[in-house]
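// run 5 | inverse folding | seed 20
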């Protein structure tokens, strides 16, 4: 039996077990996947315990993705560039770290929107860990240009400098204010604005100047249709919800652990059913 888990603090609301368990049942794979609450100061000891207990791997969520770095024996190139890990494979007594977040967002976009992002002028909102992972993936995908906006300018400038170091040919600008959305073919909200536990009427920026041709993406998936996405839909824009990034980063983790392709449609159905049940509570 393969033992797997997602670690974080808090962890109660994680949907990862729902989609992973559905995938393993469909794959006829003898595996279990659980949630484990782990404070950052206990992460090293917890990983050592899981390793000696025969676990095959773990996922990491907030606030552990950066805390884990000193405890790893190896990291994939994306994780090194991003400076964060969300997937660990326990292999021959070693901890190998990966980051599937950014690639998960890109895979989701390709699947759901039926197009590539190579020709897009992209506006990214936010400068946290999710923005860092998505920016790295956008650079790998050779998007036309990237513009970064964050309410704290210093943080945006620091993130942009880091991205430029790893991707020398990227066209990346930081803006102080978002006055005109017409130039952008894609807008991605990587902030937590609109999250159900927070202010559900809040929006990261106004969409008053947006073109109906602009695709709007939000990585928040609770609620599935955030105020930001609803406003974009009312403006006639194609929208891309946050469920896909969650799904595809998890699918890439499964591929990392087992070198097998998981049934993404099964995982999506399980997630949507769970979200539907929660919205009715």
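// decoded
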């Amino acid at each position: 039996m393969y033992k797997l888990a997602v670690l974080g603090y808090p962890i109660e609301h994680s949907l990862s077990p729902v989609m992973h368990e559905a995938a393993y049942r469909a794959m006829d794979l003898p595996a279990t996947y659980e949630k484990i609450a782990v404070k950052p100061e206990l992460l090293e000891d917890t990983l050592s315990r899981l390793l000696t207990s025969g676990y095959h791997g773990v996922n990491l969520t907030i606030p552990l993705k950066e805390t884990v770095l000193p405890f790893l024996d190896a990291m994939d190139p994306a994780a090194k560039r991003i400076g964060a890990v969300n997937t660990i494979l326990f292999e021959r007594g070693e901890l190998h770290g990966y980051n599937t977040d950014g690639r998960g967002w890109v895979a989701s976009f390709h699947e759901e929107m039926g197009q590539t992002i190579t020709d897009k002028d992209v506006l990214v909102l936010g400068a946290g860990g999710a923005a860092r992972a998505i920016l790295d993936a956008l650079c790998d995908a050779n998007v036309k240009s990237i513009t970064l906006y964050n309410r704290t300018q210093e943080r945006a400038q620091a993130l942009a400098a880091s991205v430029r170091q790893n991707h020398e040919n990227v066209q990346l600008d930081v803006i102080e204010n978002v006055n005109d959305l017409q130039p952008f073919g894609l807008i991605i909200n990587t902030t937590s604005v609109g999250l159900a536990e927070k202010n559900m009427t809040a929006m990261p920026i106004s969409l008053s100047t947006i073109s109906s041709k602009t695709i709007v993406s939000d990585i928040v998936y609770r609620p599935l249709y955030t105020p930001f996405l609803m406003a974009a839909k009312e403006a006639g824009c194609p929208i891309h919800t946050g469920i896909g990034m969650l799904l595809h980063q998890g699918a890439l983790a499964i591929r990392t652990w087992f070198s097998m392709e998981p049934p993404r449609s099964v995982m999506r159905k399980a997630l949507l059913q769970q979200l539907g049940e929660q919205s009715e509570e």
